[in-house]
Amino acid sequence: MISKRAHSGLLVLFFTFCAVFADDAVIKSSLTFVIDDTASMWNEIKQVKEEVNIIFEKVLSSKASQIENFVLVTFNDPYASQRTVTTKRDEFKSALASIHVHGGGDCPEAAMEGISLALRISRPHSYLYVFTDASAKDYARFEQVKSLSQKMQSQIVFILTGECNGRRGADYQVFHQLAEATSGQVFHMMKDDVKDILKYIEESITGIGSKLVDTKLPSGYGKNLT
After folding, report:
1. Of 93, 19, 9, the residue nearest 50 (C-alpha)
2. Residue 30 bridge partners (DSSP)
3. What is the pLDDT of residue 208?
4. I need a surface site. Which of 12, 25, 160, 219 has the fewest CB within 10 A?
């Protein structure tokens, strides 16, 4: 029979063993795309569709990648929609293909709603890429979304190809504030250059265990404004 002292010692050893292996365990993340699907975004969505095969290949072929699954969320005004959470290339491509741009006449869109939904259905420690050409109509939800993103320890990168009323308003600055709060970035891009950000994502996949902000874009491709 094991004495109480020996039993206690074994428990301490067991929990120490678990703690060591927990520290060494690979944290699996989601690679999440949050896309404004209003009519003016057709070009950006087209470029994402064209590059998705290469992104999947990078994930599947990289032993260093920590990506567990892919998540796709779209948003408009006032709703956001979960398109897919999957590990399968064909399912993700099908979800992308099902996006039909619509609406957008009043410009500001429900970006915070889209990000909030994406955070809730993605794994902790995930990487979110938000594509929009509009300001955030629901910018007043910043604190709520910031709290959720920090709780999930996820990073948010914004790819912005337009704005509604300039870049100084609270509905636009919220993107910078959220990127800063999550160690993310803000990129201002021309609509035809979104493919360059997608190549940046592809190149980041193998080293995604480190901060994506350490990866540099080629000169002239986007700008870190956070």
Report:
1. 93
2. 69
3. 53
4. 219
